[in-house]
């Protein structure tokens, strides 16, 4: 019985990490657009007017990821990756360039 308890304690001591490794802060970004109130709607857009209004905007037809970024998805159809505040009927309102993934 004492040997079992001693072996259990020894196993725990070996399995416990020697020191606590510091984990690097992680960017909790859910995609190519910021998580704020504005410019959080990913769009693939054509020509634009002063970053205020973009024409021929489409919702991305694929899910973006680090291996398949929004810029690549949009470039397949000759469009630009944008993050818009609002997308209405093919128009992107108050847009900015998408963040690199």
UniProtKB/TrEMBL annotation:
Swiss-Prot/TrEMBL keywords: Disulfide bond, Signal
InterPro entries xref list: Class_II_hydrophobin, Class_II_Hydrophobin_sf
Transmembrane segments annotated in the record for this chain: none
Family to which this protein belongs: Belongs to the cerato-ulmin hydrophobin family.
GO (cellular component) term, any one: extracellular region
Signal peptide positions on this chain: 1-15
Database matches in SUPFAM superfamilies: Hydrophobin II, HfbII
Protein name as it appears in the record: Trihydrophobin
Compartment(s) of residence: Cell envelope
Domain of life, per lineage: Eukaryota
Coiled coil location: none
Chief localisation class: other
């Amino acid at each position: 019985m004492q040997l079992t308890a001693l072996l259990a304690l020894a196993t725990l001591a070996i399995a416990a990490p020697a020191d606590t490794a510091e984990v690097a802060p992680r960017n909790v970004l859910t995609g190519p657009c910021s998580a704020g109130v504005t410019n959080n709607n990913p769009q693939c857009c054509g020509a634009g007017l002063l970053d205020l209004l973009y024409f021929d905007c489409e919702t991305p037809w694929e899910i973006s990821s680090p291996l398949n970024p929004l810029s690549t998805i949009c470039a397949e159809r000759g469009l630009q990756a944008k993050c818009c505040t609002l997308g209405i009927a093919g128009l992107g309102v108050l847009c900015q360039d998408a963040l690199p993934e």
